[in-house]
Amino acid sequence: MGHVAGLDSANLKALLGDVASGRLQLPDFQRDWKWDDDRIRAIIATVTLDYPLGVTMTLETGGASRFRTRTLTGAESAAGREPGLLLLDGQQRLTSLFQALYVADAPVKTVDTRGKPVRRWYYVDIAKATGSPSDRDESIVSVPEDRILRADFGRKIVHDLSDSSGECGAGLFPLRIVFDTQRVNAWRREYERADEARNFDLWAAFEDQVLHPVRSFQVPMINLSSATPMDAVCAVFERVNTGGVPLNVFELLTASYAGDPAYTSRTGDYYDLLSTWHSIKEHLAERFEVFGRLDDGLSNSDFLQAVALVRTWNLKQQDPTVGVSCKRRDLLELPLNDFEELAPRLREAFEWVGLFLLTQGIVRAEDLPYRTQVVPLAAVRAVLGDELDNPEARQKITQWYWCGVLGEMYGGSTETRFTRDVEQLIAWIRDDGEVPDTITDAYFFPERLRTLKTRNSAAYKGIFALLIRQGAVDWHYTDGPMAPGRLVEYGVDVRQIFPKNWVRRNLDERYPAGSVINKTPLSLRAAQALSGAPAGYLDPLAAAADMRPEWFDDVISTHLIDAKALRANDYVTFFEARATALEDLVYQAMGKRTTVVRGTPDDEGDR
Q1: By CB neighbour count within 10 A (0-12 exposed, 13-18 middle, 19+ buried), where does 455 fall?
Q2: What is the per-residue pLDDT across 405-443, written as a single tens digit (0 to 9) for each?
Q3: Nearest to 67 by CA among 91, 90, 83
Q4: Where are the beta strands (DSSP E) in 137-279?
Q5: Domain locations in the chain?
Q6: What is the pTM of this model?
Q7: What single DSSP character describes residue 272?
């Protein structure tokens, strides 16, 4: 790795001293320290045995950190100092050792095996520690905050360790003073006086087998130079971090923006990217359910990608050698000034996207065929602005959208498609380029309708949105087409037309009951009446709607269903007629018809 300053070792005492002084701190994207009592005891035992601890990784700051930083837990008194090193890997281990072995005046704030917050001091049983190394884990003792060890459900005091006399009498050495030579010598003298004949030899063995290994313990370290690029820092962190949670680019940018010296110099404060994003997301989510709640739906990464697409498109207009892109490196190299300038435009662009989706019959986050497809759509809107509102442009963007959904073009890797779509769409809408690849490459084969069975498929969601868009009338609320604004209120969802059990009893697998062909969007009230085969539930539905049967047949037909076949319980005729009608609906939305028949794509991939 070209930016590694070298593999070295640091003395544990010196390293914990750097933590205490603030020379070694955390970049703010690091998550909180969270080790429990058992793990702290285990790592202390590891150090006392001089067993390998695992490599710790740091990043040199060069005197000025690129990130907002914070001290390790327990070293808050050093806050405000500019660190020389940032800890990328090893936070849980070093924080545990720092609090247990170096902070003499405060217990460790941790949790027990049930996750309950506790405060603990750590001791080592001298007699046990000088026995077999296999017993070392048992020799590390966790003691409550009051330093009283109790038994019999707290009724009996076993050891009172609130002063050195009690500690020496119990033969329990306080690990919090292990690096303070003066205090260790004073404690040793008192311990030896307590039972000179026995404790003198025990202490000699203890010093050799426990204290010396701790004081001389070496921590292997990889040091990244301050010239290491942001994307390399992010990649390295993800590969070595033992916390099990991948580092989000947004978190890295949050720490980077908070440490931006120009912003701080200009405003006297730090830039809070997280609050900015929350404000944007809450604004969008309040207006459009399709963007989800704060913790789901449209993500901060989606928003950053849209910003990066617009930024690189703008740069390309000045320098044709620049590529339009939204890869991780583009996000990590996104300057704060550019983000501040573009974020309001992208917020407005996503508002436009929300309105566009409503007109297409897509209202809720769970109904959105592809979340990823809204990223280039928002970027195009941010670039073109009102140009996208003229009828011809609107028609083009609508065709592109449905080709992406029904051709299932956004089911794989998307970054390259983002780039192509942004450039090709802008040129096409401005009559400057050819039809985008997402349109020319999109195909929908008739056989696909039979295999679309669940919401895992973008085309499955798309077909129901199209049924709503083209004017489907609910079978209970029959006063007009289902308005997007009433879908949530009415509990509109995908409903089965012919019951699965009825189809299985009467027909073979050539006409699958679970197919999208045998489903339609209906309200919860309408769905409650769908009991048994259609011939039995249609007239009660018509009566409840105060309609003559032939009028109710007109309502049924708005779902592209042959009402006569439905009333006759003729599933085969119904199935074939509706399959043809849905094909036409799909091809109309895509603005093209598939002429070459290939194999049927698989249905249940995660799209």
Answers
A1: middle
A2: 999 999 877 788 999 999 999 999 998 889 999 999 999
A3: 83
A4: 140-144, 148-151, 156-160, 172-174, 218-224
A5: 4-103+218-242, 109-203, 273-440, 448-590
A6: 0.72
A7: -
